[in-house]
Design goal:
heterodimer; A: mainly alpha; 4 helices; B: mainly alpha; 7 helices; about 80% helix; about 0% strand; elongated
């Protein structure tokens, strides 16, 4: 892990500044009213960069033994599978039609 | 019976047992929040219409909370750095600031919830608000849990520093890894719930 050197503390402060700047960038990007797909891509990309900075520097992942990144990689694969299966369950539907009734409810009621 | 490898590295894993334990726990936490994120995605892409989230929720309050949580994450890692320099007063200062940050986050969240409830916006109002209260409520519970641990390590738990400094620093490091994870989850909740 990062030790108690002045360099280590300076790195924490630099990362802190970067996280604040990226937070401003996130809000700024949202105020541009981009198209939905682009807004999601930009918003999540900035979030991923921020999360990486927190994990690598504050959680000291960059100095961690190989077992930890390997464990997290496996978690990432399972998480990606969870999201992929969720999206696959929606693949047969047009967006916004998931909850449309499959038959005429009023007709059925009669 | 003494718990082994609380401060020394375990040869086969290359880690102390508490550190291996916290990473395994966080892996399970990823799946807990992941399942809720997946539910959110499923509900949103399947909904005939979805509210403009930034019009329903308060972006300025959420931005303030993001800054508070990031700052408390920074002070948490500075608290550990102070311990590594063998400075207990430095540790107490930064850990105190971390706890203050966590409390401020909860106050802002309570203000936000109060605004929603007084406006008649409840979890039962819509799928979006149901997911908003579920995700942010679960996250706030994690902040509370982190605060309890940090408060212990700030006050009574710090007595261990005199007798077993390496073990105490290990405890602070593990509590810090958890606290940074709570920050990390919020980093995703902020754009997903408030901005996109």
């Amino acid at each position: 892990m990062t030790r108690d050197t002045a360099g280590g503390v300076r790195a924490y402060l630099v990362v802190f500044g970067a996280l604040l700047a990226l937070t401003v960038a996130t809000v700024g990007a949202a105020s541009l009213h981009m198209a939905s797909a682009r807004a999601v891509t930009v918003g999540l990309a900035i979030a991923c960069v921020k999360a990486s900075l927190v994990a690598l520097y504050f959680m000291h992942l960059r100095h961690e033994r190989a077992l930890v990144p390997a464990m997290l990689a496996l978690t990432g694969v399972i998480f990606a599978g969870l999201i992929a299966l969720t999206l696959a369950s929606e693949a047969g539907h047009m967006p916004g039609t998931r909850f449309a009734p499959a038959f005429d409810v009023t007709e059925e009621a009669r | 019976m003494e718990i082994p490898y609380t401060a020394e590295i375990r040869p086969d894993t290359g880690l102390t047992n508490p550190k291996l334990g916290i990473w395994l726990f966080l892996a399970s936490e990823v799946m807990l929040f992941g399942s809720l994120f997946a539910s959110y995605v499923l509900l949103r892409i399947g909904a005939p219409s979805w509210p403009v989230q930034s019009a329903v929720l308060s972006v300025p309050l959420a931005t303030l909370n993001t800054v508070i949580l990031i700052a408390s994450s920074a002070t948490m890692v500075l608290a550990l750095a102070a311990l590594r320099r063998r400075s207990l007063p430095g540790y107490r200062l930064y850990m105190g600031l971390t706890i203050l940050g966590g409390l401020l986050f909860l106050v802002v969240k309570a203000v936000e919830y109060g605004d929603k409830v007084s406006a008649g916006l409840l979890p039962s109002t819509s799928n979006f608000l149901g997911m908003y209260f579920t995700l942010t409520g679960l996250h706030a519970l994690h902040v509370v849990a982190g605060l309890v641990v940090n408060l212990f390590l700030w006050l009574p738990g710090a007595a261990m520093w005199r007798t077993e400094p390496a073990r105490f620093a290990g405890r602070v490091e593990v509590a810090g890894i958890y606290w940074h994870f709570v920050d990390l989850v919020w980093i995703f909740l902020f754009p997903v719930l408030y901005l996109l």
